[in-house]
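step 3/5: co-fold with 6-phosphogluconic acid
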Amino acid sequence: MTTASPHPATDVEVVVHPGKQELSDAIAARLVTAVVDAQAARGVAHLSLTGGSLGSDIWRSVAALPARHAVDWSRVELWWGDERYLPAGDPDRNDVQNDDAGLASLALDPAHVHRVPGPDASESAEASATAYAETVRSSGAGAFDIMILGVGPDGHVASLFPGHPAQQTTDAIAVAVHDSPKPPPDRVSLTFEALRRSRQVWFVVAGADKAEAVVNGTTGATLDVSSAAQVTGEERTLWLVDADAAQRL
Ligand SMILES: O=C(O)[C@H](O)[C@@H](O)[C@H](O)[C@H](O)COP(=O)(O)O
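step 4/5: write tokens
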């Protein structure tokens, strides 16, 4: 399938798994292999994570996967595509939900886990976005190796919501988002420009309520309908979906 998005850097590939559990387990297996490959090629793997239920299920699956020991987790640089602007440790933060699901059980180097500053560590969401962008810029990462993105039923990815003013931010790596249509209202998100600087982009989507978002995302829908359709990887763009989310393809 070829996307008609305005940035068709790569063909879009869709892989369908029967249910959410199989999907989560398959993403985990794919992730371990991709991280090993990135480390073999470049020494370090830059991996960007997503919130959402599936975004955390993946870490439950990785933590149960014997092959996780094939990864040198201390040489993984971790990022988040977006974060809810809440204090460190808040159970509604994406990083905390990922940690609780299993991420925290891996032998990561805390210095390589790049959390988005919350209100306890920054003056505003704008200041947090500036600081996070500076961390991305100074990390030396030419591109993220793997960008994992959940997709909302409304077509949002990271915290870039169709029709929201922050969606179209240009010339920035990260942006503050206020009045988010999905709570909580204040967030920090990578921009489209930053999300596209990824060797591989993996959209991870489960559930019948996402079926329309999957059609829109894989067929190059416009900005006002789909943020997902605006993002492709430099080398590969994968839609990893369950049968319910794929039902309208
Ligand atoms: O910050 C958020 O509110 C979430 O991170 C959100 O962006 C999520 O990734 C998608 O809505 C998909 O979520 P599900 O996997 O739960 O459907």
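step 5/5: annotate
The chain has one domain: 12-242.
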